[in-house]
Amino acid sequence: MKAIYHxxxxxxxxxxxxxxxxxxxxxxxxxxxxxxxxxVPVGAVFLVSFVLWLISRKYIGTGKKRSPMQRKFxxxxxIVASIATAYLIGRIIYxxxxxxxxxxxxxxxxxxxxxxxxxxxxxxxDGVEGVLEDLDEALDLPEDLYIVNQYxxxxxxxxxxxxxxTFLYGKDKNGKTRTxxxxxxxxxxxxxxxxxxxxxxxxxxEDKRLAPMLxxxxxxxxxxxxxxxxxxxxxxxxxxxxxxxxxxxxLEGLEYLSGDVDGDGITFGDKAMQQMQAGGKIQGFxxxxxxxxxxxxxPVRYIMEPVYISQETLDQEQEQQQTESAKEAETWSVxxxxxxxxxxxxxxxxxxxxxxxxxxxxxFYQMExxxxxGTSWEMANKDPFGGQIGxxxxxxxxDENFGFAGLTGASxxxxxxYMTRDGGETFTQIQLPMDSVSQIPExxxxxxxxxxxxxxxxxxxxxxxxxxxxxxxxxxxxEGILFQSxxxxxxxxxxxxxxx
Length: 500
Known about the structure:
10 helices; 5 domains
């Protein structure tokens, strides 16, 4: 019996440690089926051995004095059990800390993921309100909801909902912001998976309110449109997409709906739709109905209480945005919509080369100047390049008076450099002493080039009062001829070649 007592005690200890290890491994890496296949038999062995140990212990009695060796073994077993318990339980706890193990993700899912049955699963019969009703019953949704990105829902020709994806948020009755990431796929069952308490940009943008979508859909003829598409065999799955207030520069697909979408009690007609004939944009809350599998079919875009934005206003907004961007740039910047080049010396003082005329890929520029950060611009020079046309290469000022502007041809194989000493009121073309060049880059010699082939003057760079320009055979080249000036561009000297 003593042998059974000692053997079962050691077996129980080993099984106990092994079980703790397996539990930690499960919490750290997951895989419950694999671990259960091991834990069940080892757990059975542990239970049997522990019961036998208790029986044998009672049989031989505990009052008998143990030998010194037995006491040492007993202490050793106790220490081993304590260390193993402390270490492995610590690892299990660590695995439950966010992002440290499989257990942490299971705990996160238990706390922050809910499954909500979609009872109102027909869009035509119940609308989006039915979906929100199911969610509200289970989650007590905030009264005012906003979308983080979009509300996207697909359904068949009979209105049976097939999928839902949206990220909503709002403030509950206690003023706490709550988020709801909703994902539903009919193929996975009737439950909507809802992730709560997630991270999102909750700026409560009024242009992203959810309520306007409900108002629009109450007045939209979605069912009739879907039926017509289905009868024409255009598809078997349809989708509504809501992204809040949007802007459109075309009336294609837009369908005006009368109504009060913003809830202010004031409604107005479709005047904005008529004004779009003169260009510009139209803006308003809109819901798109389209066929995901048929890109060739123009979506129907239901819009309510649209507002017209004139082209003049859009141009002013674009100019302001470009101006602010130019202030942050370390060098010159170009407005790609109209080709205007900007340079700001500081937040107040800046210049821009504005396209006054264009033809055959070349442009004629005028220079304007601002001293109030772009609030207003004054004409500085009506012809900074002396009648030459081309495309601006660069614009830079080193102080309020001294600066350079570059002009290149459409082919970008040659360019000219112009200098001003009076803040852009007058410009003179830089003439470099090309006749003093005694060497050209090795690559140029290899291909039989001469000094005359180096005709592209790059924008100057300044360091410690010295200006340097690189003359190459075309835009983007790195090998070229170097010239420097130590007297602010009054004279230039040949300084050798630049090799990559």
